[in-house]
Amino acid sequence: MEYSHNDAELIQQPIGYWSWAAFNAVVTRTRAALAGIGTTQPQWWVLAQAARADTAKSRDEVVHLLETYLDTGPADMEREIDRTIAQGWITEDSEGRLSITAEGRAFYDKAAALQDELWAERHAGISDEEYLTTLKVLQRFIHNTGGRAWHH
């Protein structure tokens, strides 16, 4: 791959632009790939919560957990849960607990395989050490600017 600038010039580049450009590229690619198999990224998040849960989570728990993902918001997450139920991938019991269906499990497995492919695509040529350093640097930028991430 060819970089945009030499090292001396790269060190002067704005993190805001390059972190935005990386975000935009990753999210756009992920959403397009998920749309290609008939789902949205928020539906994937909902499905993953149901598929990976040891015990069924309530709708409120799932909304609270996911509403901050990419600034989705509670109303959008409510709609995405409803759409995931309408797809037949999860059910909601009378107490609001969300459980994956057999059809949902099959679709989850398909979507999870796609997510694995996307992970490999994004990480091509990037070592675990480089990735770890990148995440630590980004978290330091968040900290240094008074920002908040999900882990705060």
Radius of gyration, whole Å: 18 Å
Number of helices: 7
Q: Report the helical percentage.
A: 55-70%
- Are there runs of 5+ residues with pLDDT below 50, and where? none
Description:
This protein has 152 residues and is mainly α. 64% of the residues lie in helices and 6% in strands. It has seven helices and three strands, in the order H-H-H-E-H-H-E-E-H-H. The protein has helices spanning 7-10, 15-36, 41-52, 59-66, 74-86, 102-123, 128-144, and strands at 57-58, 90-92, 97-100. It has a three-stranded antiparallel beta sheet with strand order 1-3-2. Helix 2 (15-36) packs antiparallel against helix 6. The longest helix has 22 residues, at 15-36. It is elongated. The chain starts with 6 loop residues before the first helix and ends in an 8-residue tail after the last helix. The model has no long low-confidence stretch (mean pLDDT 94).
State the gist of this model:
The protein is built from seven helices and three strands; from the N terminus they run H-H-H-E-H-H-E-E-H-H.
List the helices and strands and how they pair.
Blueprint: H1 7-10, H2 15-36, H3 41-52, E1 57-58, H4 59-66, H5 74-86, E2 90-92, E3 97-100, H6 102-123, H7 128-144
Antiparallel strand pairs: 1-3, 2-3
Helix pairs in contact: 2-6, 3-5, 3-6, 4-5
